[in-house]
Amino acid sequence: MPKIANHTSSLAIKSYIAVFSARFRTLLQYRAAAFAGFGTQFFWGLIRVMIFEAFYRSTTAPQPMTADEVITYIWLGQAFLVLIPYQGADPDIRAMVRSGNVVYELVRPTNLYFFWYSRAIAQRTAPGVFRALPMFIMAGLFFNMQMPPNIPTACAWLVSMLFAVLISAAITNLLNISLLWTISGEGLGLLLSSLTWLFSGIIIPLLFFPDWAQATLNILPFRYILDIPFRFYLGHIPPEEIWYHLPFQITYLIALITAGHLILTLGIRRLVAQGG
Amino acid sequence: MTNALRLYMHYLGQSIRSQMQYRASFIMLSFGQLLITGIEFLAIASLFARFKHIQGWTLPEVAFLYGLINISFAFADAASRGFDMFGTMVKSGDFDRLLLRPRSTALQLAGYELTLRRIGRLIQGLIVFSWASYTLDIAWSVPKIYLVFIAIFGGACLFIGLMIIQATIAFWTTESLELMNTMTYGGVETAQYPLPIYRIWFRKFFTYIIPLACVNYLPSLAILERGDPMGLPVILQWVAPLICIIFLIVALQIWKIGVRHYRSTGS
């Protein structure tokens, strides 16, 4: 018996990997969109960098980050913008819910949550491939973007980045699941993606928010998508503190996946498929 | 002309009625929009709390620029949703239907939908603008009020013109160009701060090629009674927004060329 269970679970994992890689390769096809996206993000990065440069020219008062750190932080944000689910849920799942074809998803002999989750991971990574790399090259060569100062820093960054992808995909999957509640789900989904947008560090580095807001920002999971990984990259957080932040990232990830699972079960229970 | 205007009003009335069918969704979406732009402004305010000023401009002065450009953009954005959707219309062939009707295509697209939930941005722009005017204690006079109105009107013309140009490109690419968002959304972001903080080539781009400075920075100098480090003639501050009406007319001409070029995708 245990042998069979083992066999089926490894099969399931294989199927999730297959879903991920199929979706990943499909999304890689949109090269023109990726190129346009890079252009747009580059432009935004430029505006933000110039604004911060002007702010730093205007003061001598000590700031929570140095000008160079902020500039690299901004470029990182533009390079990894795709980690923020600001465009909402998976368009294919949206179409399936609209058309009713979503019932076919229920027939599959896999766990629907992880089936969609695998797609979500692809959605949060593939479009970034053709954006992040040129951003590092352009901003690194011409606009003062720094590399991580040393190897341990880079390693801490990579580890926290990996979990950032997983957390962001779990939030994306919540957006997917909220589609099952059509109208009201749309509002809640928008709220969730807005919160991610506001409190992940993309509009300003989180340390620049007022001191009274810091405690709240610290308990939200959103800072683990961009802010914390970026500060590891800069060496602003020492690499050994990964052992402090990693447990939080894992906890948030488990909590988001569990919540998604529960909500999906509820959503399926109330799903009515119209025949015809 | 009056007939066209009446039809346009009718289009807008229909659009509002259809959106009001989902009242809860409408309220939630516009509240969400208000919340986002509100917190984004809070982010700007917290930068000023730490840096005090940006090259001599204080928070209320920047808030004045911010409010003005967001009001303009909210009007433009609500009125040009049809042009925003245009890429998909070309792809699906739905644009053919518009060509069959005995009215100009630009009118039909402009009346496509008045996106009400953009009202969140408008309200927020008005709040920030009022707060800024109140805090700065502006000595309002008739010419200054006139300037505010033409600045908003000119700004709306500029953004509608940009969105029309963006849509026109779709005649050739059958794909709406995301890159053009840098001119619209990027323009709003840029104009929220005084132009002299940017690098020279960037300033020149948003003054001479895209006349963004004309609807925001220049009229604000006149209203706030500030000197211009860029050294443009003072008279320009009072008439600059009108340049954007010309910009819109040019954009409409380019649109006409595009329509003539149009070949249905056949789908």
Beta strand % of chain A: under 5%
Averaged pLDDT of chain A: 86
Q: From the alpha-carbon coordinates, what is the Rg of chain A to the nearest angstrom?
A: 20 Å
| Assembly level | heterodimer
Number of strands of chain B: 0
Element string of chain B (H = helix, E = strand) = HHHHHHHHHHHHH
How does this structure look, described?
The complex is a heterodimer of chains A (276) and B (267). With 276 residues, chain A is mainly α. Helices cover 74% and strands 0% of the residues of chain A. Chain A has one domain. Chain A has helices at 2-28, 31-57, 67-79, 91-99, 102-107, 112-142, 151-178, 182-199, 211-219, 227-234, 242-269. Chain A is globular, with a radius of gyration of 20 Å. Chains A and B meet through helix 2 and helix 8 of A and helix 2 and helix 10 of B.
Could you give a short description of this structure?
Chain A is an all-alpha fold.
List the topology elements.
The complex is a heterodimer of chains A (276) and B (267).
Chain A: H1 2-28, H2 31-57, H3 67-79, H4 91-99, H5 102-107, H6 112-142, H7 151-178, H8 182-199, H9 211-219, H10 227-234, H11 242-269
Chain B: H1 2-19, H2 23-51, H3 59-79, H4 81-84, H5 86-92, H6 95-100, H7 105-110, H8 119-136, H9 142-173, H10 181-191, H11 200-209, H12 217-224, H13 234-261
Helix pairs in contact in B: 2-8, 3-8, 3-9, 9-12, 9-13, 12-13
Keywords:
heterodimer; A: 276 residues; mainly alpha; B: 267 residues
